[in-house]
Amino acid sequence: MTYPTKISWQFLLFASMVSSSFSAPLNPSSSTGSLVTTAGDCYDYNIPVTTKINAVNWLLPELSDNFAVAGFFADLIARDSSTAFHPVSAPQNTTSFANFSISATFCSPKINSGHDKTVLLASHGLGFDSRYWTSQANPSAYNFVDFALSRGYSTFVYDRIGTGKSTKVSGYGESQFSYQLAVLASLTSSLRQGNYTGTIGEPSKIVHVGHSYGSILSHALVAEDPTISDGVLLTGIAYNASTTDFAAFVEASRLNIANTVEPQKYPGLDSGYLEPADVLGLAAAFFHEGNYDKEILWYADEIAQPLSVIEFVTGSPLMLTKPIAYTGPASLPANLLCDCNGILQHPAQEIFANASAFEAAVHPGSGHGINFNYNATGAYGAMLDFAKKNGL
């Protein structure tokens, strides 16, 4: 039995079950970490994670060339795609197991301000890896980890499956949403037990921070287990269909098969991994003209990562439409390029009706990649002010 893409998203939200094993030493691979920061002490980890989920299967032929990519997205964004287009199956009745090595970095602040045992667990979105949070280009203006450390918070960033230094998998299989969600749940559980936290031991609180797809994952996590997180800070996400336009994102990105755009950079990736055809596609999808430094655009292009076609079709904010039982504080500082006050709040406020505190804020002038646009630190400040105000 098959399901159209938009229906399968709703099934996938609750299809994930997690089993974790941490057979590797808990000692960091580096005592100083790969991040260059003066605000904290950082530790790199390669974390083994075992997952079990009810996976979906890819139903279409693999993308043969960039003409096939264009045809695929034309079908995906067509008006009748919810009934006529079936790229993936429903979740299988049998359990699928997979093992991953997840590359992660934990940082704790050098100066204890009372928040060092609150860990901000940040999940990046499509098109990047954990370096989205750790810009080495003008870090005082763009580096989220540096900013959080300067406010006294600890951070944990990681490369999602298929990106950065984490395990590479097929773009048609194990990079799908449910595996990504299972990994996030596993990492959260491990941090809660005091593993991979440098020298601070067990954290007192874990706050999930997300950007775009990482926000969708963080939302799905607390929807599935309302007790797993002490707070959520979700960026680059809107729950209102009028502000969530996948067709526009696809058209702006001009996605091509990654190993045809940069064959020397991605020789081992299959045709299921896509990236913008050039830097203009990246600019159109993540930046807002007049509100960014082109040097930062080139830096973002340098560190950008391909997205997989199966993660793209199995995760969408539009699948997150039902009220959830999560009772912690929730903040949605979003990037909106219009006079959208009142639109952002609903239906998000109804979805988070049980939250102890809720705040939705427009970050003016920013493109989708908030961290690379002017006044990124303004967004960071609003996020952490909300966290502090709510005892996180």
From TrEMBL:
UniProt xrefs under SUPFAM superfamilies: alpha/beta-Hydrolases
InterPro entries membership: AB_hydrolase_1, AB_hydrolase_fold
Pfam families for this protein: Abhydrolase_6
Leader peptide range in chain numbering: 1-23
Domain called AB hydrolase-1: residue spans: 120-372
Keywords: Signal
Protein's UniProt name: AB hydrolase-1 domain-containing protein
Species this chain originates from: Mollisia scopiformis
Biological classification of the source: Eukaryota, Fungi, Dikarya, Ascomycota, Pezizomycotina
